[in-house]
Amino acid sequence: MNIINLILTDYTLQIVSLGSALLGIISGVLGSFAVIRKESLLGDAVSHSALPGIALAFLLTGTKNTEVLLLGALLSGLLSTFLINGISKYSRIKFDSALALILSVFFGGGLVLLTYIQKVPNANQAGLEKFIFGQASTVLLRDVKIIAILGTILLLLVLAFWKEFKIVSFDIDFAESLGFDTKKITFLLFAMIVTSIIIGLQTVGVILMSAMLTAPAVAARQWTDKLHIMVILSALFGAISGIGGTIVSSVVSKLPTGPMIVIIISTIVIISLALAPNRGLVWRYLRNVKNQRSIGEDQVLANLYHLYVNHDNEGHCHDLITINPDANLQQKGKENIQKQLEDLKKKGFTRSNSLDKWCITDSGIEYVENYFKEGEE
């Protein structure tokens, strides 16, 4: 009840939560395309590359106006994206190597500029370091309006170019064969991804922004094979992590909001990796166990069928070692065969006699013969 009362009465919490939720939605939607294109680390490079743009914008203007600093970050991010793609396209350097190179160079340059700014006799430079780790608590209504306006534009562009973004993300060669200008579409998509990264720097910072771009999409990918559902789930996960991280950091004192947001979305990713119905590790393990058990039962039933066919007395039952000689190697093998025979008995495929020997039933014979017939077809 205290948490609900805090949400309803704390104006700062409401503003920060709204800004974080909007950031989560925008990052989730555009991050889905980055994940599908297998270019998730582009967000890491762009977010780090924004730092020198922020520093240069301050040096040139002498102001900490959010719009000016984010504009500098945007230009720096676009430049880094252009360089990464240019290096990978026109040289022998791979995309990941170009990405690591530009990331380290830009981020190192940004740190140098921030260090220089701190030595400049200007009291206005305090607080620029918040863009490194983020400081969501400083988000104002004006900042939320900027996020909302830019986010609305980005989401409308996604809707307008949904078909183009989808086909370019999945099969760029097929898109070219259909006559799409893939270079312009790719550039627009990259520019939108860069913009979504830039507007989130004040909340989670350059270090953690890549997680906001990729984690919601990675979690959503585990639950569906359809892009539109993935985008919706990714936006939902991003919003939940933004609101949840803000609330937790407000309830627990001295807990930073940005890292808490990332922790929550990381928890969602872990849950999705473990429990998603089709791709979840838990369900995959259970399916593997079930499949192995089914294969083992089919093998035992096939052995009983061959014994039935080759024995003079068709109703003769056999002990475990005869059914599967490997079961004689260890006690666990005998227990497995015994369990498989019991399961087959429940299905009506096997029966046992008073001496605990086993033979195949008419239903089992019919099942095996139908199985072999299907295999031949």
TrEMBL record:
InterPro entries: ABC_BtuC-like (IPR037294), ABC_TroCD (IPR001626). GO terms for biological process: cellular response to iron ion; response to zinc ion; transmembrane transport. It is found in: Cell membrane. It comes from Tissierella creatinophila DSM 6911. This is Manganese transport system membrane protein MntB. Keywords: Cell membrane, Membrane, Transmembrane, Transmembrane helix, Transport. The chain crosses the membrane at residues 12-35, 41-61, 68-87, 99-118, 139-162, 187-215, 227-252, 258-277. It is a multi-pass membrane protein. GO terms for cellular component: ATP-binding cassette (ABC) transporter complex. CDD domains: TM_ABC_iron-siderophores_like. It comes from the Bacteria. Belongs to the ABC-3 integral membrane protein family. PANTHER family: ABC-TRANSPORTER METAL-BINDING PROTEIN, METAL TRANSPORT SYSTEM MEMBRANE PROTEIN CT_069-RELATED. Coiled coil: none annotated.
